[in-house]
Amino acid sequence: MQIQDGTLVLGVLNGDRSAFAELYDRRARVIRAICYDETRNAHVAAELTQEVFLRAYRDLRRLHAPDKFAAWLVGIARQVCREWRRKRGREKRAMVGFADRLAQADRWMDSPDAHLFELREAIAGRAAGAAESLTQQERLALHAFYLQSRDVEDARGVLGLSRSGFYRVLSSACKRLRRILNDKSGQDVPCNRRDATGSNEVRS
Question: Which domains does the chain possess?
């Protein structure tokens, strides 16, 4: 006769780690299926499943009805998946916004105006105020991406950052540089222009 979930939960609370292993073996497949249904990615689903059981083990004493373990575990899985979706949505919005800023920055870097030399000097840390305003990580990100023309995957690898982490550093650096150049020129650097078709470009 199979031991009930509630009995296993009580065993875990009394220090029987093997009881939690049994709960994992019994419920992991269902939890993984829920996570996969939400993510459509087997690797992500496996990671989220581990997170679900880590939270369950950590918060097991909060379960007031041990025989309701399965339903409680499903609730944790739903919450973990919601958090994943929100995080993924934020990262997507950040990447889309930053892609627009990068496109503008590329046009800025390629333009023949007077700001080009100042931007390159700032990236190298030689422009007045740049060394104090940019962190070493920001200078490295700009140097790798713009001056060495590395792609995002290569540049982030050099800095040891995730893709989203690299985008955040590069975005922060672009904003700082824009302020530096604005201060030096005494006027707003034209980062919100209209192209030949009349469409608006995003300010970096």
Answer: 5-87 (1.10.1740.10), 111-185 (1.10.10)
